[in-house]
Amino acid sequence: MAARLILTVDAEQDIGEIYAWYEGRRLGLGEEFLSSLEASLEAMRRYPELLAPVHENYRRALVRRFPYCIFYEFEKETVTVFYIVHAARDPAKWRERLS
Protein backbone atom coordinates (compact mmCIF):
# COMPACT_ATOMS: atom_id res chain seq x y z
CA MET A 1 0.00 0.00 0.00
CA ALA A 2 1.32 3.43 -0.93
CA ALA A 3 2.02 5.93 1.80
CA ARG A 4 0.05 9.14 2.21
CA LEU A 5 1.83 12.22 0.78
CA ILE A 6 1.95 15.61 2.48
CA LEU A 7 3.65 18.68 0.99
CA THR A 8 4.54 21.37 3.51
CA VAL A 9 3.82 25.00 2.69
CA ASP A 10 7.56 25.52 2.15
CA ALA A 11 7.71 22.62 -0.33
CA GLU A 12 4.70 23.97 -2.22
CA GLN A 13 6.39 27.36 -2.41
CA ASP A 14 9.59 25.72 -3.69
CA ILE A 15 7.60 23.95 -6.42
CA GLY A 16 5.92 27.19 -7.47
CA GLU A 17 9.22 29.05 -7.69
CA ILE A 18 10.93 26.29 -9.66
CA TYR A 19 7.96 25.98 -12.01
CA ALA A 20 7.94 29.73 -12.67
CA TRP A 21 11.68 29.76 -13.31
CA TYR A 22 11.46 26.97 -15.91
CA GLU A 23 8.36 28.44 -17.57
CA GLY A 24 10.25 31.73 -17.83
CA ARG A 25 13.02 29.94 -19.72
CA ARG A 26 10.76 28.10 -22.16
CA LEU A 27 7.01 27.76 -22.33
CA GLY A 28 6.08 24.21 -21.29
CA LEU A 29 9.36 23.46 -19.51
CA GLY A 30 7.72 24.14 -16.15
CA GLU A 31 5.07 21.56 -17.00
CA GLU A 32 7.82 19.07 -17.86
CA PHE A 33 9.39 19.75 -14.46
CA LEU A 34 6.05 19.15 -12.73
CA SER A 35 5.60 15.87 -14.60
CA SER A 36 9.05 14.66 -13.54
CA LEU A 37 8.43 15.83 -9.99
CA GLU A 38 5.10 13.98 -9.84
CA ALA A 39 6.82 10.77 -10.98
CA SER A 40 9.41 11.16 -8.20
CA LEU A 41 6.73 11.86 -5.59
CA GLU A 42 4.77 8.79 -6.69
CA ALA A 43 7.88 6.62 -6.40
CA MET A 44 8.46 8.00 -2.89
CA ARG A 45 4.86 7.14 -1.95
CA ARG A 46 5.22 3.59 -3.21
CA TYR A 47 8.72 2.91 -1.84
CA PRO A 48 9.31 5.48 0.92
CA GLU A 49 12.02 3.49 2.70
CA LEU A 50 14.02 2.72 -0.44
CA LEU A 51 16.32 5.68 0.19
CA ALA A 52 18.47 5.91 3.31
CA PRO A 53 18.37 8.96 5.60
CA VAL A 54 20.96 11.57 4.64
CA HIS A 55 20.47 14.07 7.48
CA GLU A 56 18.84 13.17 10.78
CA ASN A 57 15.58 11.42 9.67
CA TYR A 58 15.42 13.17 6.29
CA ARG A 59 15.75 11.19 3.08
CA ARG A 60 16.66 12.60 -0.32
CA ALA A 61 15.14 11.70 -3.69
CA LEU A 62 16.17 13.09 -7.04
CA VAL A 63 13.95 14.53 -9.76
CA ARG A 64 14.66 12.83 -13.07
CA ARG A 65 15.89 15.13 -15.89
CA PHE A 66 16.07 18.13 -13.56
CA PRO A 67 18.83 18.94 -11.05
CA TYR A 68 16.63 18.99 -7.94
CA CYS A 69 16.53 17.06 -4.68
CA ILE A 70 13.42 16.34 -2.63
CA PHE A 71 13.93 16.08 1.11
CA TYR A 72 11.31 14.11 2.98
CA GLU A 73 10.56 12.08 6.10
CA PHE A 74 8.67 8.83 6.30
CA GLU A 75 6.79 8.16 9.54
CA LYS A 76 3.60 6.27 10.31
CA GLU A 77 2.75 5.46 6.68
CA THR A 78 3.12 9.14 5.71
CA VAL A 79 5.68 10.78 3.44
CA THR A 80 6.13 14.45 4.33
CA VAL A 81 8.03 16.59 1.82
CA PHE A 82 9.83 19.50 3.47
CA TYR A 83 12.17 20.95 0.87
CA ILE A 84 12.89 20.87 -2.85
CA VAL A 85 16.27 22.35 -3.68
CA HIS A 86 18.72 22.57 -6.57
CA ALA A 87 21.25 19.73 -6.33
CA ALA A 88 24.20 22.13 -6.62
CA ARG A 89 23.08 24.10 -3.56
CA ASP A 90 25.56 24.24 -0.68
CA PRO A 91 24.70 21.34 1.68
CA ALA A 92 25.05 23.70 4.65
CA LYS A 93 22.06 25.67 3.33
CA TRP A 94 19.70 22.69 3.11
CA ARG A 95 20.92 21.26 6.42
CA GLU A 96 20.17 24.63 8.04
CA ARG A 97 16.66 24.70 6.59
CA LEU A 98 15.96 21.14 7.70
CA SER A 99 17.25 21.64 11.24
Give a description of the structure.
A five-stranded mixed β-sheet has the order 1-5-4-3-2. The mean pLDDT is 93. Strand 3 and strand 4 form a beta hairpin. It is globular and about 40 Å long. It is an alpha+beta fold. It has a single domain, classed as RelE-like (YaeB-like fold, 2-Layer Sandwich), CATH 3.30.2310.20.
List keywords for this structure.
29% strand; 3 helices; five-stranded mixed β-sheet; 99 residues; globular; alpha+beta; YaeB-like fold
Q: Report the sheet-strand fraction.
A: 25-35%
Q: Identify the strand order in the major beta sheet.
A: 1-5-4-3-2
| Count of helical stretches | 3
Q: What number of structural domains do the residues give?
A: 1
What's the order of the H and E elements? EHHEEEEH
Largest sheet geometry: 5 strands, mixed
- N- to C-terminal distance: 30 Å
Mean pLDDT: 93
CATH architecture: 2-Layer Sandwich
Count of extended strands = 5
